[in-house]
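Researcher: Go.
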Amino acid sequence: MIDADTIIKQLEERLAMFQGSAKTQNVGIVEKNTDGVIVASGLSQTFMGELVSFDKNKMGVVLNLDEDNVAILTLGKSDDIKEGDTVKTTGKILSINVSDDILGRVVNPLGEPLDGKSTIKKGKDMPLEKIAAGVVDREPVSTPLKTGIKAIDALIPIGRGQRELIIGDRQTGKTAIAIDTIINQKPRPKADQPMAERNKKQKPVICVYVAIGQKQSTIAQVIDKLDQEGALEYSIIVAAGASDSPSLQYLAPYAGSAIAEYFMEKGKDVLVVYDDLTKHAWAYRQISLVLKRPAGREAYPGDIFYLHSRLLERAVKLNKENGGGSITALPIIETQANDISAYIPTNVISITDGQIYLQQDLFNNGIRPAINVGSSVSRVGGAAQTPAIKSVSGKMKLELAQYNELAAFAQFGSELDPATLAQLERGKKTIEILKQPQYHPLEESLEILSIFAVANGYLDDIKLELFEKFETEYHDFVKRSFPKIIESLSTGQKPSEEIIKEMQKSILDFKKAFGA
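Model: Structure:
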């Protein structure tokens, strides 16, 4: 038998090891379910943006706090959440789990894979909503984000950490510009240089493409194109299609931003494309109407501006003390009949650091990308350009603006002096050289060669219909016969007198071979 002393000793040991694990949990009752928005009572301890759990592993996020009840936005399907079900607080805010394993994957705004591949390894929980970095943590935008599109890199340059809006009617090539920019981030190793070495020299940009409210077939085409071009390996697709619930469409851009912040915290440069924020605003309007929030202009709720400003403010160029990473945002907005003075377009124009304005009539006239150079602007400007491209594109924007005015005046058919005629002809040639086929971004050295040729009058005697053939063959010729030019221009430094002479010689030599 065990004596009393042993029992007392054992009890003392157990009491010494005892740890109280009492835990309180706030539990509420579902009052009603309206289009994926749950009204629940009893959650007196919850907070805004908190993740709550229902029966059958369903989750939701708190969006409205009223006196007697709360409104919860459900994540995923909510048909089987019924009146009288219990709902519990979790004490956590809505997050997405991100690891390096997410590269090359297609996920929904909750981080669940949609591509049918293996599960994504667990990493760090990144909150979907986060206060943007303060002024002290930032530094001025100075490094270019090269799009590979001549008209943008020369006239409307984008820097790493900038927010540049792409705006225009439907079917004007907005997504095409974003996809070309993603494709252009692929590192281009030289023939004698291993890829790893090239990556060390030039920090590759990780790309996040957020598809909001689009058809599944459109999203599939984008994924397929990125895969064909080898761009999927450094990209992440966050998809919330037209058939998904408004709650997922509303959360999609914040999920994209959270994924971008994960890589930025590691000191990397990230590009995020929000395609498009018009549909995002529609989804939020739908949710707000169900939440019975008072409607304002165009039936949008009063905080629609804050919705996009808190998202785009997260685009940043961090200083060296904070890791030196960056997030560049390319939001897309769709206009109706070129009306950029509508509610959502004006909101986003005022939040961003410039806009690329695409016009339907330019697109229909065969000018592609259909960029209206007069209405497009980059508020970072030349600070985000390399000295090499700045040296050749300086006068270009002014010349194009003058050409547009002259072209409008020349329509009246009055007699024009030879100088004006020459200026009109040069403007036509400049517009022609800025045309570029879709999915063919150019490296900066080749963009400089094309702009240099037209700006210095070397293409004045080439017919417009031969421009595309001339340009393609000229680029191949320089790569073969004048590799020193490509090498020098690739550094981004202003071309020396010797290189300029070589460029002039290359054009004259090629024109003889071309028969011009």
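Model: Residues 35 and 290 are 8 Å apart (CA to CA).
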